[in-house]
């Protein structure tokens, strides 16, 4: 059976379809706007983060540039100071050299000695042979107060000169106080094994022997000669013993 619509039914039907279409369009538009709004928020967050990072980078660069500038200024100042000190050192060094030359000429013209009174000149050095006795440490310190140091023997010629001047044992500037068997001069230089004059007796007994009888710490200070009278060579002895000593100092030239 055919269904026949009246005009009013047709109009209602058409109107209903139109409304549905309109709601559909509205819903679609709303979804689009919501999606756009969501992306806009994401984009805004990303831009904000980038902006924060950019500001942080600018601040870091500014700090680094400030430090680099200060560092350059500091290095520049130190460079100037080093140059100034070098120039002052050169001036003082030249004055010192000139003073020594004048003193040398004065000594030659007047016949003055190159060493102080009671000191003996040999090989460009001055030597003082004490007449009093002290222990090794006191001897070392006394030489310093006299403007020198306990003698440091660097050659056969120097050894021969010293032995020609002494008749009894004297302290020299050599010790193994820090480490047993490691001998050092008072200028902290180690003993050169090719320039040493330890006693080597025919019976095979040699020095240094670090004798410990009565004194377990052993013998840690070197002397020219032995109490028994051998003065041509070195021996180690108890540092607390009192002996005469030899000081050495630079000559005036
Ligand atoms: Ca020793
Ligand atoms: Ca000894």
TrEMBL record:
Q: Which Gene3D superfamilies match?
A: Mannose-Binding Protein A, subunit A
Residue spans crossing the bilayer: 42-65
Q: Which residues form the C-type lectin domain?
A: 122-248
From the UniProt record, which GO molecular function terms apply? carbohydrate binding
Keyword Transmembrane in the entry? The reply is yes
Q: How is this protein named in the record?
A: Immune-related lectin-like receptor 1
Which keywords has UniProt assigned to this entry? Disulfide bond, Lectin, Membrane, Receptor, Transmembrane, Transmembrane helix
SMART domains found in the cross-reference section: CLECT
Q: Which gene encodes it?
A: ILLR1
InterPro entries, A to Z: C-type_lectin-like, C-type_lectin-like/link_sf, C-type_Lectin_Receptor_IMM, CD209-like_CTLD, CTDL_fold
Keyword Transmembrane listed: yes
The domain of life is Eukaryota
């Amino acid at each position: 059976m055919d269904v026949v619509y009246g005009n009013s039914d047709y109009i209602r039907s058409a109107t209903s379809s139109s409304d549905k279409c309109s709601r559909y369009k509205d819903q679609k538009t709303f979804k689009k706007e919501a999606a756009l709004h969501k992306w806009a928020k994401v984009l805004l967050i990303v831009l904000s983060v980038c902006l924060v990072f950019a500001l942080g980078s600018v601040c870091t660069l500014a700090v680094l540039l400030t430090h680099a500038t200060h560092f350059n200024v500091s290095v520049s100042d130190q460079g100037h100071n080093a140059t100034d000190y070098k120039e002052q050192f050169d001036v003082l060094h030249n004055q010192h050299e000139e003073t020594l030359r004048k003193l040398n000429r004065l000594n030659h013209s007047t016949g003055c000695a190159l060493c102080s009174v009671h000191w003996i000149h040999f090989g460009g050095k001055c030597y003082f042979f004490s007449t009093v006795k002290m222990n090794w440490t006191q001897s070392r310190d006394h030489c310093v107060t006299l403007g020198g140091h306990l003698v440091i023997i660097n050659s056969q010629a120097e050894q021969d000169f010293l032995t020609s001047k002494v008749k009894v044992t004297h302290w020299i500037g050599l010790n193994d106080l820090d480490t047993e068997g490691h001998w050092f001069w008072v200028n902290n230089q180690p003993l050169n094994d090719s320039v040493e004059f330890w006693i080597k007796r025919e019976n095979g007994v040699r020095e240094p022997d670090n004798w410990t009888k009565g004194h377990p710490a052993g013998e840690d200070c070197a002397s020219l000669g032995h109490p028994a009278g051998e003065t041509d060579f070195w021996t180690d002895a108890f540092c607390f013993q009192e002996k005469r000593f030899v000081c050495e100092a630079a000559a005036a030239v």
